[in-house]
Amino acid sequence: MTIHFAAARTGNASVMARALRVPAITRAANDDPLRDEADAVLAAALRHFAAHGLAAADRAEEKARQAATAGDCAARDRWLEICATLDPRRARDLNRQLAQRTSGRACN
Questions:
Q1: I want to staple 91 with a disulfide (CB 3.0 to 4.6 A). Which of 18, 24, 53, 84 is the partner?
Q2: What is the pLDDT of residues 49-79, one digit of tens each?
């Protein structure tokens, strides 16, 4: 004998009906606004790695140093984030070096 379940349509549903009810989805699982920036940095790091292979962290460090020398804070920060994605220790050391070198300037 087959048993079919039909959920009650009234507010006073049985205990079994309430237990088997599927809760409504309130938002999409991949709809996380805080991940957008992190995803963009990851995508940039992956493209950079695809272009430069195992030397990608070296190239990102060079680009960050060039941007810091030129006084381009936004580019320096972007390349530091890419470097941090590829090699966190190198990025920490580079950030420390650049902070010491540029102390007192606008790019801190």
A1: 84
A2: 999 999 999 999 999 999 999 989 999 999 9
